[in-house]
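Lay summary. Proteins are chains of building blocks that fold into shapes, and those shapes determine what they do. In this project we predict the shape from the chain. Here is one chain we studied, written as its sequence of building blocks.
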Amino acid sequence: MCRAKHVDCVYRQTPEGNFRERLEALQVSHPAAVIYRAIQTRPEAEVQEIVRRIRAGADAETIARQLSTADLLLRVHLEPETRCRY
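And here is the predicted shape, written in a compact code that computers can read:
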């Protein structure tokens, strides 16, 4: 309908849509969700290390921060050099 009139479509977000966005943001940022997702997706050796840290008494925020830092370091390490050298 908006396209036919050549105007920008503007939609108001429903409370359900707003809730869904907040839930998705929480799943990305909440330490327990980060750890849970890592346990689901990481190789077995990494999962064992995560569980070892949990059993050793490390708090969820520290483990989640370590996982994020490791991911960033790995990304930086794996990105190819894009500058030209002459």
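What the prediction tells us: The longest helix spans residues 60-78.
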